[in-house]
Amino acid sequence: MSDMPQREAYGRALADYGDVNKKVVVLDADTSSSTLTHFFASRFPDRFFNVGIAEPCLVDFGVGLSLGGFIPFVNAFAAFLSLRAVEQVRTCVAYAETNVKLVGHYAGVSDFKDGPTHNCVMDLAVMRAMPKMTVIVPADNNEIINWLPVIAEHNGPLYFRMSRDKSLPVHTEGVKPEIGKGIWVREGNDVTLIANGAMLGRAVQAAELLAERKISAGVLEIHTLKPLDVEAICLAAAQSGAIVTAEEHTIIGGLGGAVAETLAVNCPVPLERVGIADRFPLTSKSADLLMDHMGLRVLDIVAAAEKALRRKER
Amino acid sequence: MNYLSEARILELEEIARQIRVESIRMIYRRGSGHPGGALSAAEIIAVLFFDKMRHNPANPLWEDRDRFFLSKGHASAALYVALAKTGYFPAEDLWNWGELNCHLQGHPDRVKTPGVEMSAGPLGHGLAVGAGVAMAARLNKKRCRTYVLLGDGEMQAGIIWEAANVASKYHLSNLTAILDYNDVQLDGSVHDIMPLEPLADKWRAFNWNVIEINGHKIRQVRDALDLAEEVHSLPTIIIAHTTKGKGVSYMENSSKWHGAVPTAEQLEIAMRELNEAGGGI
User: Fold this and answer.
1) Is the pLDDT reported for residue B278 higher than 60?
2) Using CA atoms, how far apart are residues B139 and A26, in angstroms rounded to an integer?
3) Is the Cβ pair A49, B170 closer than 8 Å?
4) 3-class SS at B148?
5) Is residue B281 part of a domain?
C-alpha cells in the first residue's frame, strides 16, 4: 500500500477492520470523501454517521456511542477536530475518560492546497496537554494499517494523527506496534534523530546522507507522543550524546517540545529541533514543496545534526 | 399512560421538596453551588428518578437502564440528592461535597460518582451525547430511553442545534429532552441576554415533537414523559416552564441566586419556607 496516500490506506484498512470488529462505528463531519471513511460507510451504512459540518457535535455524538458500548472512530480534519472541538475533547473525551478514537486527518502542512486555515501544526501540542489522552502519529501506510487494531482494542481516549498524502515508506505490514514504545529504525553513535509522522522517512534519508559524511546517526521513531517513551529518549541521549527532533508540527509543544522537556529534566544533551517555526504555513502546489519551504527538508535535518554534533564536541 | 394517584403525586411532591431542602443545605455547607437551577428542576428530577426511569442503584451499569444526562451540570446538587436518596451512594457523602477526598465534584463526574452517566459542567454537551447514547441503544436493540435535562441558557449554544439536527436526522424517538425553562441565567433574564422565543416553533422547525408543560406540576411532568414514548419517528423535547429558585421567596426569578450561597439567616428563612410549604409548594 506504499503507493497510495495515507488517507486511502487508512480508509481501506478501516473498512476491512469493520468486518473483524463489529463494535467499531465511524463518524465523519462531511469529509468522508476526503478522509476516505466512505469505504467504511459503503460497507457498513448502519455503523456510519455523517453529522455534517459540526465537529463539536461530532465528538459528543461519538462520546454517546462509546457510552453505549461501541468503539467510535471520530474523523475530521485535524485542524477542526483539535481546535474547533477542543472543549468537547477536553471535557467529554479526556476528562470523562471515554473510549473515543479521535482521528485527525490532513494534519501538518499536508493540506497544501487549502492553505494556512486547513494546515494543522498545533494539534499535537493541544492533545498532548490533556491528561488521559493517548497521542499517536503514524509514519507511513503500513504503520497505519498495523496501528488500527491496536488503537481499537486500547480502552481510552486516543488521538491518531495522519497526513493527507503519501509519506516515505519505512515500515513493513504485519508488525504490531506498541503504544508508548519507540521503535529503533537505525542504530548510530554520533547523533540520534528522533522523528515521527511524515518526517520519519526524511530522517532515515538524512541518516544516510550523514553516513556519507562519516557521521553515524541513529533514528528513533517516537510514534507515541503520549505516553512518552522517556526510557528510549534517555537511552538515545546516553548512547549518542546529541539529539535532533524532526516533526511536521510547530516546534512548540509537539515532539521537539516533549523531547526537550525530557532531556532537560533527565539527561541534558545538545538538542536541535527541526519543525515548523512559530509561524503559520502557506498555500502551495504540493505537500512536499510546502514541507521543504517550512524548514522540513532532509538537508535541514542534516544541518541540525551537524550543529548538535558541534555543540556536543564543544 | 400510567395514571398517578393523588397519593403518589403527594409522595413525589414531598421528594421534590426534600431535593430542594437538601440542595440548599449542601450549597450552604460547601459555601458554593448553584441553588437557582437546582430548585427549578426539583420536580423533573423527582419524577424521573423516583417514578419514571427504570434504573437500579445497586447495579448502576445495568445494561437495560434508562439513561439520564444532566446537561445543565450546574444543578449538580439536585442530582446528587436524587442519587443518594435512591441509593447510589451513602447520604453522608452529600455533606462532604467539595472535600478533596469526596467523589462529588462541583459538577457531575462520571468517573468518580456512581450513577452519573456523564461528566458535565460546560454547557451544551448533554444533547449531543444523549443522541449518541440513544443511537447506541437502537444499534444494541435495547428498549431503554435516554433523558437529557437541558437548561435554557444552553439554548444559546450552537452545539444544541447541531445535536437537534442529528437527533432529527436519525429519528431518535428514544431520546427525550426536558428543558428547564426558568428564564434566568447568570447575567440576568434569558429574554434580555439572548432571547429564545419563539422557542417551541424553533424545535418544531428542527423536526422535533414538542410538549409544553408547567415543570412544577408532577402530573404534567409524568404525563409529558409518557406521551413522548407514543411518538415513534421524532425525538421529543418537553419545554417545562419553571421558576428559577422555586420554593424560596427571595431566590425566585432572581439571577443573583444562580450561583450564590445563602447566609445563615437566609438559610433559616429558606428552610422555614420549604418546610412550611409541606408537600405542595
Assistant:
1) no
2) 13
3) yes
4) strand
5) no
